[in-house]
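Section 5: illustrative case.
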């Protein structure tokens, strides 16, 4: 909205790392080539494996992360921000990737406009008034309109409505410490209940659709096993869910989302990283395809559920 207002004040809690958008316009000969199934599938595989390689930085090597991401981000800062003070305010002090990386070619130019003022955490909002806001430094800023961009609850409030399982069990009680689920999909005590994009199924380096498709593969295997066995319900065992959750958060300790020096919406109030899957997407797909009957409990009745 910077171009549409006379004056804009941006109150920033913490800066984000920004890298340029990787937009590319295909040339006519390239579009013709992509009409061939072989070329199209080859390009898909190249894009997939190139994106999958980002896990090496997010989890295994900060040097690699700095090489492929931070260097690009700093180059954009130095290119688009000429004001030293603005550059200081917009340069994060945590490891790139700890918070979600912004893809934009227009954010820094917008904040550099003469009608835009950036307030950092040292000059944040102290209180609202009838005419605008007063900052921590005592500055009164007159405003016609306030736009709240304070985020959303993506972890502890993962499911906002009540879910009741066997014997009146409440999902909110099971998740009282932090949200958890086997493959991010099934929960002990909640038969025939499947969550899509549940705990630790977010992906920070590739398409979320790949994970969703993998979850659907697991869900369909559960349904087919119920039909094959003649049972009426399927439920993951508590031991299996605990073992899976312990593995996920053990692996998470190695990731930038846990050790990058920031607090992001990836984390629940408990400090556990809930939004992200700590590994390669093909690892998750392999786990989802490998249905383990021993990890599940089949019942002939759904009474009390």
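Designed sequence:
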């Amino acid at each position: 909205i910077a171009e549409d207002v006379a004056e804009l004040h941006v109150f920033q809690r913490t800066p984000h790392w920004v890298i340029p958008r990787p937009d590319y316009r295909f040339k006519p000969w390239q579009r013709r080539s992509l009409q061939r199934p072989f070329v199209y599938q080859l390009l898909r595989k190249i894009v997939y494996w190139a994106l999958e390689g980002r896990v090496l930085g997010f989890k295994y090597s900060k040097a690699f992360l700095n090489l492929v991401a931070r260097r690009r981000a700093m180059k954009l800062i130095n290119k688009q921000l000429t004001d030293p003070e603005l550059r200081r305010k917009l340069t994060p002090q945590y490891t790139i990737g700890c918070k979600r990386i912004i893809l934009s070619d227009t954010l820094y130019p917008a904040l550099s406009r003469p009608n835009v003022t950036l307030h950092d955490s040292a000059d944040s909002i102290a209180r609202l008034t009838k005419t605008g806001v007063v900052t921590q430094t005592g500055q009164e800023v007159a405003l016609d309109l306030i736009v709240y961009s304070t985020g959303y609850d993506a972890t502890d409030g993962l499911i906002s409505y009540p879910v009741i399982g066997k014997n009146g069990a409440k999902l909110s009680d099971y998740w009282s410490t932090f949200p958890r689920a086997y493959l991010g999909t099934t929960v002990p005590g909640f038969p025939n209940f499947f969550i899509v994009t549940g705990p630790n199924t977010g992906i920070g380096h590739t398409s979320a659709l790949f994970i969703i498709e993998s979850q659907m593969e697991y869900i369909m295997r559960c349904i087919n096993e119920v039909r094959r066995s003649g049972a009426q319900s399927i439920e993951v065992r508590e031991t299996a869910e605990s073992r899976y959750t312990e593995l996920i958060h053990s692996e998470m300790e190695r990731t930038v989302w846990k050790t990058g020096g920031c607090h992001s919406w990836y984390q629940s109030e408990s400090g556990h990283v809930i939004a992200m899957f700590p590994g390669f997407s093909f690892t998750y797909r392999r786990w989802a395809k490998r249905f383990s009957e021993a990890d599940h409990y089949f019942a002939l009745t759904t009474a009390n559920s």
